[in-house]
Specification:
Layout: H1 2-43, H2 51-58, H3 62-75, H4 80-89
Helix pairs in contact: 1-3
């Protein structure tokens, strides 16, 4: 009987630990998303983030930072004026993909540009 109780408690503790790790990971990802957006907004008026800054702050090369930024913006509701400013500072030409939406903003090569989530 006592061994069953100990086994149950160990299982419960493992489940609780796993849940705590999951919540911690989710909050870390949310912080990273907000950090990337804030950093991109700060540097947008200056033509974008300098290469060394993206590497120091996020451990990313500029193309990866831009790819991540547009991925975030494609999933997050945002202001069109902000997207236009970010488009000028961080052109997503390396991450542009063809899209079926005829009203979606497009690059000069006809690819759909990432934008805001509906």
């Amino acid at each position: 009987m006592e061994s069953d109780i100990r086994r149950y408690r160990r299982r419960r503790e493992r489940r609780q630990d796993a849940e705590r790790r999951r919540v911690k990971q989710l909050s870390k990802q949310a912080r990273e998303v907000e950090d990337i957006l804030a950093f991109a907004r700060i540097w947008a008026p200056f033509g974008g983030v300098p290469e060394e800054e993206t590497f120091v702050k996020f451990g990313m090369r500029p193309w990866r930072f831009i790819e991540r930024l547009w991925h975030i913006l494609s999933e997050k509701p945002c202001d069109r004026a902000e997207v236009d400013q970010l488009l000028q500072a961080y052109p997503p030409t390396a991450v542009a993909v063809p899209g079926p939406d005829p009203d979606a903003p497009t690059a000069s090569d006809g690819h759909t540009l990432p934008g805001c989530a509906p």
